[in-house]
Amino acid sequence: MLDEKRQKKLENFMLEQEDKKIKLKIKKRKNKKKRHIIKDEKEIIKPKKKRKVGRPKKRGPKKKRVRKKIVKIVKERPVVDFKIVTVINGKQNGFIGQYQTYQDANDKFESLERDNEKIIFPRKYLNKGTIDILKDEYLLLEKNRYGDKDDGVARNEFGKFVKQKITNNDKWVIRNKKTRLVEETFWVYGYDPKTDRKTFTWIYDNLLIKSLENTYDVVRIFVYKNKLLIKYDNKPLSMVMCKNKSDSIRMYNLISDKIRTDKIKQIICVGAYNIVCDARREIEKEIMDLTGWNKIKIQRSTN
Known about the structure:
alpha+beta; four-stranded antiparallel sheet; 13 strands; elongated
């Protein structure tokens, strides 16, 4: 009886162990599958390694840094023997250029003289609180390095050759001298008197020619002291302020000559209102209505 019981126990024990072995095998298989899945997920989710900042470390001892010697290349300045300057009433006010040879300087000097021919209404007076006669010139100067060069000779206003000398500088000698012409600008009432001054061509084209829209339009021009007045049929008065009375007369004469050459009959040059009369009083009243100035300011003028 005992032997049978023992045999049964042994058989049961053996069966249990076999079952355990089978279960362990099944667990191992499942665990293997899970590990593969986790590895795949890690490969997808795993972030990339950050790149190290800075240069990679080099093997070996550090090299000694030697500063390179900087060699300065000094360019030789060209030898300047001539220059052209602008002078107003005996004082330098501008600089045109420097030249190595007389030929280059003289070529530039002649081109400046050709530019004078393009000026229509040259500036003759200078306004610095008081109206002064303008003497604007180009000077061609030569370097007097060793003080052995004689003073230059140039023609004066009367055509005579006269010695030219710079009073406050012995380093330069005058070789040639020519008058410089600059286009005059005017204050047209309604525009800024300093930043928006107008030339003669602008006044002629915009205030005179453009106002003749129809064949029956008539424009009258007259001089009142230092003002050039332009009167229209259907428009308000236009007023051009000159530096003095002689400038306004010069402009009036130039317009009358240009009208004759262009053969324009609709622009009439009336003349100047110097004598006190009814026509002059009417003009003064029109200027007062246009500007809002009082009579004393309107009658003020420079000769």
